[in-house]
Amino acid sequence: MSNNYNLSIRPAFDEIKGVGWLAETDTLEMIRNANLSEKEKIFMGGPGAPVINENFGNVAHNAVPDVAVWTVIEDNDATVKVSIGAIVACIITAGTVAANDAVAHTQGKMTWRIGERVYNSLHWKSKFNVNDLTGEFGIGFVWHASEADGFNFGTLSVACLYGNNDVVNAVSDDGAVAERTDVSAYINEGINVTVEVILTSTDVKFYIDGTLRATHTNRVPEIDSVFCMATRNSNGVQTILINHWVEVWPE
Prior knowledge:
Blueprint: H1 10-17, H2 24-33, H3 38-43, E1 52-54, E2 71-74, E3 79-84, E4 88-93, E5 101-105, E6 122-130, E7 136-142, E8 157-164, E9 167-173, E10 178-182, E11 193-199, E12 204-208, E13 211-216, E14 226-232, E15 240-250
Antiparallel strand pairs: 1-15, 2-5, 3-4, 4-15, 5-14, 6-11, 6-15, 7-8, 7-14, 8-9, 9-10, 11-12, 12-13
């Protein structure tokens, strides 16, 4: 699992370690009591559901992302590869033929469900860009691993973004019908965007570059979900999603 701790967490973690040898139970107790956010405590090893804190820098150049977290699907010449160079990112490239897909997902390795354990909310947050919004892509929570077009289905999407033919929607569903909000005005092709989606038992909130852009209350999912990123060759475009980092955590 790729727990590459954020720099903001490191000082407190180093302070905890600096007190000398501690039993694991003592360390966990110090994490619980430290002046940290719930997110930081979980990323440092505190109690909680599985988390992803992934910057894709722990594998070789042109390798698939960490297989302990991700499974990839590559149709024909589609690829899911990590770039280690001027940028460090997971590059999800659809194939050169129409309807060819590239997918990275956590199914069979990490699953989340709101209200299943002691936490009250689920979050995913990611910095990414898409080369051409005329093509098709999806990123976020879905019911199971999916090709990009599945992010728009009322029986599959959970809390995600779906883009196709120059329209990007925030999508959530309750396992039957999807609720959608057009957020195209806030996402530009080829330009990095940071998206955070917060899922509770009563609503789904979509933040884009720190600003709340959509709140869904009519179709709130309460089903098992996995995290998934996908591109598809659609509308004559070989879609490429460049993901710099992704976080998934409960609170």
